[in-house]
Amino acid sequence: MGAMAKLAHRVIVTHQLPEEWIADLRDNCNALVGPPTSEVAGLSAELQRHLPSADGLLTLLTVKVDAELLKKAQNLRVVSQMAVGVDNIDLNACTQRGIPVGHTPGVLTDATADLAMLLLLAASRRLLETNRDAREGRWGTWQPERWLGADLAGKTLGIVGMGAIGQATARRAKAFGMNIIYTNRSPKPAAEREFDATRLKLDELLTVSDFVSLHTPLSAETRHLIDAAALAQMKPTAILINTARGPVVDTDALVAALRAGQIRAAGLDVTDPEPLPPNHALWSLDNCVIAPHIGSATENTRRKMAQLAVTNLLAGLRGERLPHCANPTVYEK
Ligand code: NAP
Description:
- The chain has 12 helices and 12 strands.
- By secondary structure, the protein is α/β, with parallel strands linked by helices.
- It has 2 domains: 2-107 and 298-332, NAD(P)-binding Rossmann-like Domain (Rossmann fold, 3-Layer(aba) Sandwich); 109-290, NAD(P)-binding Rossmann-like Domain (Rossmann fold).
- Residues 84-85, 105, 108-109, 112, 161-166, 184-186, 215-219, 221-222, 243-245, 269-270, 293, 295-296 line the site of NADP nicotinamide-adenine-dinucleotide phosphate (NAP).
């Protein structure tokens, strides 16, 4: 089908995005764009009033797309999320309504794997803690036994969720001389060959890994996958990295494990809750490196995510199959 007649489709973009990123949407639709994320995290009251007439919704992971929202949006034909994870969206409710949900895999894989590696290095070499000591006047003379961290070469990295980002992280870790093991819902033979990696059950992986890096989506099965019992299985010298979603880890159990030295350190790009309040116990721990959910935050990556979200949305409005659909069973109906 050719270009859509402008104004034919009414689209809600939940939050402000740079105009250059959503130019295709502006060209093809009547787009109502919400406030900056700094003003409202969810769907603004103003946009909620426009839900009944919306054909399409371009959303961020801070907006809950649940049965209640869908009920108000009776005309909705496509939801497009500017993220790969869609845990904020009730996929079943969308599928039942015949609404395809777009997401943005692939374009953020390298940036997120870079961040996982950054956290792994920062946590193992105590970057933030030592930087703070030095800034605050506690540098002193070079001391042979001070600020010692953990090596990477020859150590074992356990990847939990060997999908796109898990594999990109394994690829980076291999270049640092690490050995790779993994756990995943289904076997990943290509990854096993590329990384000389063995698939283990989670319990086994936790007991033998020097580093554990989480890369599963957040789902009913993965919520609190790393709980007190899982942390207790890890080596006291192990380091946990989470760039997946905060609730994959039981935060209270992690605080207790880090305090007690049950594991050596953690590097987190995602937390539960988000944002993490300034008085949260995790901030008080020297052995916890925290980034504020910046896995995909590079200029190129965020632009590509927005453009892919627009591509998905326009395909849905045209009645075409979404290039990247998070609920493909919607097409079986
Ligand atoms: P992906 O390619 O779909 O990989 C997810 C992997 O997890 C798949 O291999 C999948 O196995 C596996 N998996 C799913 N459920 C599982 C379970 N219950 N137990 C074990 N393995 C399970 O997705 P991706 O692009 O790598 O992204 C992964 C996640 O990273 C996203 O869902 C998102 O939440 C998070 N993320 C975070 C950031 C950030 O800013 N920090 C950025 C991007 C993504 P199967 O192949 O068998 O289904």
